[in-house]
Design goal:
alpha+beta; Nucleoside Triphosphate Pyrophosphohydrolase; 4 helices
Length: 163
């Protein structure tokens, strides 16, 4: 890791509760997430879902009123995946729909360069992490089309063979 880089420090425990959650004018929850890539291995981070066994997701979570969307994305990546680094750019925002076609959330996705992989992190006991090639990540995200769409929109997809 470069001596000049200052990484955000986050609490040892994950944030809980939704009292600081940001909602838009239509009362849609705002969420921030990342396509986190380790520059050494060129692999992307996926984490296990806490709701469904054998389902993999990208690190993401509620944007809170005391942080920017980028800070929220970095915090969620640390809490869920145990990595620290920095947002390198905005990918796009995506609407996440529930079962009744209602909008559940608007997810703001960022490209994230991994600088440090931690042995311990806030959600280590409830999540697994996995480092994947583009093709593996695309397959693992098949149950989460909105996350797969974010992966496909990232420069990670364009830098690899999408076959």
């Amino acid at each position: 890791m470069s001596q000049n880089v200052t990484l955000n420090e986050f609490p040892v425990e994950a944030r809980v509760g939704r009292e600081k959650q940001v909602f838009d004018e239509n009362n849609v929850r705002q969420v921030a997430g990342t396509i986190a890539v380790d520059p050494k291995t060129k692999k992307v981070l996926v984490v296990s879902s806490t709701k469904y066994d054998d389902v993999w997701v990208l690190p993401k979570g509620g944007w809170e009123s005391d942080e920017t969307k980028e800070q929220s994305a970095e915090r969620e990546t640390y809490e869920e995946g145990g990595v620290r680094g920095e947002v390198k750019g905005f990918i796009d925002s995506f609407l996440h729909y529930g079962y009744n076609d209602e909008i559940k959330a608007k997810i703001w996705f960022y490209e994230f360069e991994v600088k440090e992989i931690l042995d311990n992190w806030p959600e280590k006991e409830i999540r697994k992490r996995r480092w994947c090639t583009f093709k593996e990540a695309k397959h693992l995200l098949r149950f989460k089309p909105v996350l797969q769409k974010a992966l496909l929109a990232s420069s990670f997809a364009q830098e690899t063979d999408p076959a």
